[in-house]
Amino acid sequence: MDNFVERLSEVICDVLVIGGGTAGPMAALKAKQKNPALKVVLLEKANVKRSGAICMGMDGLNNTVVPGYATPEQYTKEITIANDGIVDQAPVFKYASRCYDIIQELDRFGIRFQKNANGDFDLKKVHHLGTYVLPMPNGDTVKKALYRQIRRERILVSNRFMATRLLTANDGRIAGATAVNTRTAEFLVLRAKTVILCMGAAGRLGLPHSGYLFGTYENPTNSGDGYAMAYHAGAALANLECYQINPLIKDYNGPACAYVAGPFGAYTANSQGNRFIESDYWSGQMMQEFYNELQSGKGPVFLKLNHLHADTVGEIEEILHKVERPSRGRFHQARDTDYRENMIEMHISEIGFC
Ligand SMILES: Cc1cc2nc3c(=O)[nH]c(=O)nc-3n(C[C@H](O)[C@H](O)[C@H](O)COP(=O)(O)OP(=O)(O)OC[C@H]3O[C@@H](n4cnc5c(N)ncnc54)[C@H](O)[C@@H]3O)c2cc1C
User: For a substitution probing ligand 1, which of 17, 22, 354 has the most ligand atoms within 8 Å of its CB?
Assistant: First the structure.
């Protein structure tokens, strides 16, 4: 017990942001911009410089609402359809309404978005209704750019601390959190006037019975702690009926990215090489079409690029094997699969909450 008390530290702050992936740094920056006098702490169980879902690949912003390409109303409708109606429309609409300002702010941070010859954002259509995909030629540097801003704004970063529970005051309000250092086991009590949970998805809901570990789409290091901590503190959980399953490259826990290759002419195909999916962007409908094809005996399902010109495939490889995730290129090399010659087999991911 003495050891335990000796290793207990306390931090007092105005705003505590838990989770330093993408949402966390942005939330911390917004709090600091609103009131520079605030003491803002960003707590992360890994290292903010490279943690979170974004380390699984980022080649473009998939949900950009830019005037001239899409409206907030249209985007909200698209997301509602994609999620089979299980969605809270008010925050989706709010996000869509603010999106253009956020993109411009990220652009100023040095996060480079693809632009056309006129200097305007150059979006690609891969969804059913609207055009929302904005390629990011240096998507792999997003975290570095966010980290620079965090440092500039003097936000305090606590790496390697994993939050375990929210603290509640006598009146039931959230008053902070507890955390433990993942390297030293130091226990930390953080008292805060405001706590913002940004701990990402639940990458997998327990280990699969089969023991096969390459079946997650989401970052497997995210274990849904935000949901659990909010629930333990008394929050009602909603919309959990909407879970996500995704097409993956078989034996590689990364997406096939048919939606990235789609604007270049690639598509999801059955074993006969025929296209059967209406829109390659993720939706309940798309996964149903995938499942139906497997059930019909025309599986397995593939990403088909071998009909494209070698230069086009080279361009796609630049995105998928450099910006998205370098291990992807190494995986295909070791398997001796070449997009120019082979269709790439896909399978379906485990269930995750995103
Ligand atoms: C394979 C893949 C590819 C993707 N590609 C794209 C793309 O090309 N374009 C696009 O727009 N989107 C893409 N996404 C989605 C996008 O990356 C995510 O939506 C976004 O990064 C999520 O940000 P977040 O901050 O909510 O969660 P995360 O980035 O996952 O951040 C959560 C953070 O919380 C930390 N954390 C968790 N639990 C605790 C705890 N108990 N204590 C302290 N810290 C904790 C984690 O370590 C992590 O750093 C992709 C996602 C995946 C999985």
Answer: 22
